Amino acid sequence: MADTQNTTNADPTAAAPASTAPRLDVLLLGAPGSGKGTLAALLVKELGIPHVATGDLFRENLKANTELGRLAKSYMDQGQLVPDDVTARMVADRMSRSDVARGFILDGFPRTLPQASALGDILAGLGRRVLAVFHMRISDEVIIARLGARLICRQCQTPYNLVTMRPRKEGICDKCGGELYQRDDDKPETVGARLKVYHTQTAPLIEHYTRAGLVHEVAADGPLDAMVRQVLDTLRSLPR
Ligand code: AMP
Questions:
Q1: Could you tell me which of 12, 59, 114, 115 has the fewest CB atoms within 10 Å of its CB?
Q2: What ligand 1 atom has the least distance to the C-alpha of 109?
Q3: How far apart are CA 80 and CA 112, in angstroms?
Q4: Where are the domains of the chain?
């Protein structure tokens, strides 16, 4: 199991070396369509740290037709998870970039217990640890309705919703002018498989991180601004 509470200072009065000072290393945990990406985009603006979404990283690889992208596609098309070792390597690589120095909002990783363990190892190797996990609580019924109406930008991956968050111009991204499309895996035939994977493989992480004292519940079917406020207030209240 991941040692997410990696404490290194026996003497609480001693100043922590810079490398062990916890950053804003934040996880968003929730089913597909729970609004992780939408919430993350707003948090990025408030906190000035990057949004790291493994689904986006796979889709970027797919678009660039890399070997990783081609491998990931075979799993993504089925609504299944890309193997843990492949995914963890991609995350370790992303964590080595300088833009995460002050923290990150990790969305879509970890999705399995071995991935949680891998993340603990990756962060420990960098003298870091998970600061907080926000669990986006929402029913499957709301998710199925949401995903059926979701479009994303082919270029910058910004999500839209034809019912609740329409783009200003039909089919065009407000932010970058890119083309909006429905992800293949948001089609009803794949959504069921993704939800099943979530409940069997990812939901156990809620208990895993609850045991580590890191989980904060977020009502993901509520207003977005309330969610942002809750996350920011929580982060402000945490000892760092
Ligand atoms: P998402 O955009 O987060 O819904 O991810 C889309 C798809 O990418 C998933 O259904 C998986 O096939 C793959 N994927 C994303 N993140 C992971 C992960 N942490 N582990 C394995 N597969 C992943």
A1: 12
A2: 19
A3: 12
A4: 23-139+202-234
> What is the β-pairing status of strands 159-161 and 150-153?
antiparallel
Q: What is the pLDDT of residues 59-95, one digit of tens each?
A: 999 999 999 999 999 999 999 999 999 999 999 999 9
Q: Token pair of 33, please?
A: 């369509």
User: What is the C-alpha separation between 145 and 165, in angstroms, rounded?
Assistant: 13
CA of 231 to the centre of ligand 1 (A): 23
Q: Which two tokens stand for residue 9?
A: 């200072």
Q: Which amino acid is at 133?
A: V
- Asked if residues 198 and 31 have their Cβ atoms less than 8 Å apart, the reply is yes
Q: What angle is formed at CA 153 by the lines to CA 149 and CA 156, rounded to 5 degrees?
A: 145
**Whether this model's pTM surpasses 0.90:** no
Give dist(CA 236, CA 61) in Å, integer: 35
CB-hemisphere CA count at 13 Å for 169?
9
Q: Which phi and psi (to 5°) does residue 143 adopt?
A: -65, -45
Q: Which two tokens stand for residue 41?
A: 């985009």
pLDDT tens digits for range 86-145: 999 999 999 999 999 999 999 999 999 999 999 999 999 999 999 999 999 999 999 999
Please identify, in words, the CATH class of the domain defined by 23-139+202-234.
Answer: alpha beta
Who lines ligand 1 at CB under 6 A?
A: 32, 54-55, 58, 75-76, 79-82, 87, 108-109, 111, 115, 185, 194
- Show the tokens assigned to 124: 């420990």
Show the tokens assigned to 60: 């970027």
**pLDDT (tens digit per residue) in 19-32:** 455 599 999 999 99
Q: Which residues pair with 218 in a beta bridge?
A: 136
